[in-house]
Amino acid sequence: MIAWTSELKLALARAEAFAARHPRALTGTVVTALSGFAVTAFGIAPLAPDAVDLPQRTIAEAPQTLDLQAQLAELAAHDIGLIRSDLTRSSDTADSLLKRLGAFDPAFAQFLRSDTTAKRVLQGRAGKMVQLTANAEGVVESMVVRFPAEKAEQQSTHFSRLTLSRQGSGFSAKLETAPLQAQVRLGSGTIRTSLFAATDDARIPDSIASQMADMFSGDIDFHRELRKGDRFSIVYESLSADGEPISWDGAAGRLIAGEFVNNGRSYSAVWFKDTASGKGSFYGFDGQSKRRAFLASPMEFSRVTSGFAMRFHPILQTWRQHLGIDYGAPTGTAVRSVGDGVVESAGWQNGFGNVVHLRHAGDRTTVYAHLSRIDVKKGQRVEQGQKIGAVGATGWATGPHLHFEFRVRGQHQDPRAIAKASEAVPLPNYARGQFSQTVASVKAQLSAAEAMGSGVSGND
């Protein structure tokens, strides 16, 4: 015991000598620790006088290693595969599609060229989702193609799935229809330059942004009243096919609820479907319908190039009253009916070029002029928001735009004023209980969306 204590004291003396030569804080800490250890050892050792007599036992065990050859054989038996996804292009051939997906399989390429179903699906419209599975050598094991349901009435709820599989030395093709899956998502943003810029930054689909503009079209003129710093929060559905998000036309998710703060004033609305009538619409949280008799604009988005006021006519070169509103937009942009009505006339009319006249209730008429295409016929009944044609530059037009007029008993009126003053349908009394529950649910979701996206902004 005395010898052990002497060794510790000698070690401590050497450490103190080293500290004298290297007077640093860390060295001092080590010395202190060693000093404490020595005192502790001295105090404890006498309590166990027979500690040095305890039996000692040495155990030696060789580590076990798996046989290297067995491991290599196991890896060789494991088939390393390739899974790649892409969208079809209008210029695709069987070979170019497989090359882009990283596969080399002449037999499968020949099957794509010869099978009637595969050829029809892959050579059709671009933008179809393709997922390919191949082995390490690039030999195809399967290919799955997902695209909009072939029946128009199913495109908002279902999708088509073509599965091409290797079967021995040949291949099989299976075409089926499956339901789309809906997931609830939250989004929020702040306007810096435009609504679409803000929704793009927040990764909100354009179809949802358009629904938001429709939801608040009776409260906000998105062409003239949008302000920098305006903000929004929304709850919406995102559709997916086998778990893969989609963005097909006609298969857009539903906007469930939204809150928009415009120039300091807040507007809120929710999508509510009356279970008794089976009809759904946007309603304010007070139960007032957001669907007015007339939309604020015949296009989802564009810019007003000439309002309902006096102007210098670009062709006649004179000042005169402009009896409508001109919306600047690229040729081919969809034009929609601002309200339910019947097509009074559709065709060519002098300076208006291709023009559609719609007759609405209350002796009201709307006019859509300079169209590049007309999609309705005289006598046809149309619903609010239905596409009736496309923007063009026919007739007396200096460039592609839509000339839009609103007439009441033959007299021209400001379309924006008519839209804001048009009647709204209140929620039926029997549905108010269910409606209140829906509003309470979406309020919490909107609060979460606002908190989540407080840092999102929109910049072009």
Automatic annotation (TrEMBL):
State the superkingdom. Answer: Bacteria
Where does the record place the M23ase beta-sheet core domain? 321-415
Q: Which CDD domains match?
A: M23_peptidase
Q: List required co-factors.
A: Zn(2+)
Q: Does the keyword Hydrolase apply?
A: yes
The alphabetical list of record keywords is: Hydrolase, Metal-binding, Metalloprotease, Protease, Zinc
A Pfam family assignment = Peptidase_M23
Official protein name in the record:
Peptidoglycan DD-metalloendopeptidase family protein
Species name for this entry? Roseateles aquae
